[in-house]
């Protein structure tokens, strides 16, 4: 009986193995190494696409974390213009764009996001093209209809960024050692920093004047260097000169006329209360004295001044001790001197009479 049962189990196992081998597709039967390589292939594809300059992307805040994201329709256009990037996927190079993005979503290389603000703000015609705040979309599937996708992996840091991060401690130490620099080096640093600060202030002033003049006269909002004050922008976006198309409604004529009157009154008020030449001279003298104190400071002079102050304190202490020791005789002497001085004054007064 035991032998018959064992033979039945063997027959069942052999029949199951035959069925599995018959139903198995040899094209999908890949060893573990090839499957691991396929995962690495999609990782390489994601890194290559992210580093490509033609894929338009922006930075935003997703759950208190800054992420780099792109739009679904831009990704479709990007792969249509660069089909050679699909060769990185090897056997999956013939996949459609939707399938590729879905695979990246399943591998947690991407996450689909949605804008936090879903209503048009007052004064604007439509929603922002690139929102600054995102949230995770519940349906993690590809779509090119106002869909955003953020990269979830940490991109490799370039060599220049690593070298730049190493220079920050050196720069901090150099700033702390500014008082001991030579006089010429102090002058160079001072004039360089003052020039950069003056350039920034002039740029902001010209920017505001152009905006005010265009808004009052033309009814258009023209901000040159529109991202110069942006908190989250790349270096290329930060120094972009010409603004994008104005998407807000045109201001009313009454509002433009009112702010024109306010601007004229403000200019007249500032001109009336402008400081005179004497006040400007006093302010310039005060600022120059402060700058001279900073530039002329020397550690050797500081040490010598400390030694002089310590020596004066010691001399003052010795003088006080001497006065304390001869305290019984000093009052009489001062009284006699006071009497003599008063007598001399009386004699001089009588002579004059």
TrEMBL record:
Protein name: Uncharacterized protein
